[in-house]
Amino acid sequence: MASFQKLKCLNNGRKRSAVNELITMIMMIIKHQIDCFINLNGGDIKQLEIKEENMEGSSSQSGGTSTNTAPGNSENNNSLSYKTILYENMYNNRILLKLEEDGFITPDEKSKELIKELSEIKYLYALKVLFENLQNEFSSQVLANLLEALVDTPFNHYSKESVARLELHLRTLVTVLERICFSPIVLSKELRDKVYNSLAKFAEIHRKTTQVIEIGLDNNFRRNFNQFNQQSNNQDEQIIKKRNYNIDFLLIHLRDTLHSLRDDEARFQEIIRRIRDLLKTALNITPGILTIAGINLPNDCSILSMLTQIRQSLSFKYPVASYYVDWRIMLIIQNNLFIWSESSEKIISKKFSELVLMEYIWSFLEGEWVNAADKSILDSQTKFDEVSNKVVKSLKNAGGFLNELAGNEPIALPHTLWFGILDLAQNLIQRSSRIATYGLCYYLAIESLNKAPSNFIQFKSIELLLHLYNVDNKMFSMIEIDFDQYTQKLSENNLEDSLENFRNLLTFVKEKYHEDLKILSNNTGKGKEGKGKSLNQNSYLKKKQTSNSNILDVIADEITCPINSEPTDQLCILKCQHILAISNLKKLKQKICPNCREKIEDNDIRYLPQNSIYKNLYTKFFESGHILPSIELENSDQLYDSDDSDNSEFDFILIKNSNISSSLLSRITKKQHPTYQNIIKEINEKHYEKAESLCKEFLNFFPKSYSLRCILAYIYRCLNNYEQAHLYLEEAIYLNL
Ligand SMILES: [Zn+2]
Q1: What segment(s) does the record annotate as region Disordered (predicted)?
Q2: Which residue among 145, 160, 455, 500 sits deepest, i.e. has the most Cβ atoms within 10 Å of its Cβ?
């Protein structure tokens, strides 16, 4: 790197004047190195394409950038990855292809065939895949018939396999019912009651299969079964340990959805329409908010304020469980984003749809986390178990549907919304091929695990982490360490019971996950070589490893405005798919994209809020140097007198936007980390000795922070201690090599 060579030369003589220049350059280099690091390690990562275009070579390319937002292109390279198995299942499902060969072309024709084999896992899976593709359209008769058939499918035995089958069965049922929700179909009262009453049957199957797993298939089933019936307390305890909570969740979701559909589908359609319109406005898909010519830029278009609006206007005719309002809003948002990004018109790009969806996911979970005190780990487990038993009983109560017509709010498991949102994240991982999305899901799962108030949330967080590990076992190889750290935390807090509990849960979820994978790999043609073998991690030989690429870097990169070079919360995405901080969009003198110079038209700007993600990852961004503290330099102009002509991409941006004077040092970020504010305050007041000692103190907490070293260097420069300034700069460089 040419600019680095230059740094070396500066070692000889003229240190004094050089240090000023150095500070500027080093900030640039730090940024640059992060980008280069990502580029080196992830040549085939799709979402880095934009960055590569900017960074490759030093000539700034202009015009002609087309961003590929179509799914799947890069996936074809990793022919043996788990991701491919997922992909094969979703886009090349063996059974669906076979049906096509046999002349069943339309989605209706396919589902009419699949309906005949609903007790077989592979057909069930194919059916789910068929319905999850929102491009496929179905006639209302097929939808209703399928719903009925799924309710009538017999479960005549209980085994380990039937747990996996039950989950898949209920997921398929949910998928079909969601289709009905989003289409103008009114179910007959008979069918709706029939589906509702089937929930009791499924709850009973759930209970029995759970017992089978508990007891173990090696033992005499009947004998143990009787034994447990005599010790009913013990039995409950046993069930809790190896319980597939996904099934509990799906049953509650089905119950409440049927509830909300009751009698008043027109109202339900109205709710969908309103949320869709609000979302369109908030994202500027219906142009109006974001106009670069005027001053109509949003200040309060955050997701939270939008949600408050929706919540206030949303009510169901019959009472639903309290979590359900937010849950339904989330499902409607997700549905719209998927449809807009997958439809042939491509109203929005897949990248944009995922970024927005992730922000909503974070935003909802943030609300859940506020209510969960993180030091009292698992103290609500007992309460959870109580409620859980009640929910099962209420589902099993045959007349429940009529009873609830009386108008009482149905009982739901604590933190159902939290669980559901994590389930959506898991679903998104399957659809996505973007590392930033995986990374955001990773932090989501870790945060949820750390704050988990019960086994319920622990279960889902573990499952999500295992899922990520299977998508990319190199990148997510740290999850075992995360599990260790979590158990450590439990033992440090003397939560022996919880610790034991968690270990059992972890083993169970791993076994369960393994079973699910079997279903998946048996469904593709590639599973031929043997059932167990294809699950072996080692067999997934990837041609191109994405190892070592720091997940946080990828996330930060995605929401980094090219003008101030750091992650930002209020962004917009342009037609060329480049992003820009809204505050900088306002300031652009020439309305062209700073990256590719494409002309910016009002109608092409999409609003991209990332407030929750930014807020929750702020500390991480800061510690890793993606966000630098703001320092007002008294002589910031002078910093750009130097002839760093080889930093052309920076030059380009700086010259283009000279009115913003976006020096890396003099930037003002709104939300400063509180621990750093004092340092900055002291610097601004020119109390450099005080700032120095504070800075060194904080360096003990963040020993690897290079941003802190850069500040220290700056402080020493102000103290005229060029030796020390130079020393810290070198350390900073070293940390980033
Ligand atoms: Zn552009």
Answers
A1: 53-76
A2: 455
CA distance 480 to 42: 23
> Ligand 1: distance of its center to the CA of 600 in Å?
9
3-state class (DSSP) for residue 295: coil
Other CB atoms within 10 Å distance of the CB of residue 651: 15
Task: Give the closest residue to 627 by CA, choosing from 668, 686, 572.
Answer: 668
- By three-state DSSP, how is residue 330 classified? helix
| pLDDT tens readout for residues 162-191 | 888 999 999 999 999 999 999 888 888 899
Q: To 10 degrees, the CA torsion angle through 226, 227, 231, 237? A: -100
Nearest to 131 by CA among 117, 115, 120: 115
Residue 276 Cα to ligand 1 middle (Å): 28
Which two structure tokens, joined as six digits, stand for 736?
């980033």
| Distance in angstroms (rounded) separating the CA atoms of residues 297 and 299 | 6
> What phi and psi values does residue 579 have, to the nearest 5 degrees?
-110, 165
Express each pLDDT in 357-416 by its tens digit. Answer: 999 999 999 888 887 754 454 556 777 777 777 777 777 664 444 455 455 667 788 889
pLDDT tens-digit series, residues 209-261: 888 777 654 444 444 444 444 444 444 444 446 789 999 999 999 988 988 88
> What are the Cα distances from residue 99, in Å, to 102, 106, 237, 712?
5, 10, 46, 67
Side-chain-side CA neighbours of residue 691 (13 Å): 25
CA of 579 to the centre of ligand 1 (A): 8
Task: Name which of 145, 155, 363, 357 is nearest 247 in CA terms.
Answer: 155
Q: How far is the CA of 65 from the centre of ligand 1 (A)?
A: 7
Residue 41 burial (10 A CB sphere; 0-12, 13-18, 19+):
middle
Q: How is residue 640 written in tokens?
A: 């750009």
Give Cα separations from 646 to 1, 199, 424, 520 (angstroms): 9, 67, 45, 51
Distance CA 430, CA 90 (A): 9
How far apart are the CA of 646 and the centre of ligand 1, in A? 22
587 Cα–ligand 1 center, Å: 16
Residue with tokens 């295992």: 466
How far does CA 168 lie from the centroid of its chain?
22
| C-alpha to C-alpha distance for 23 and 235, rounded to whole angstroms | 67
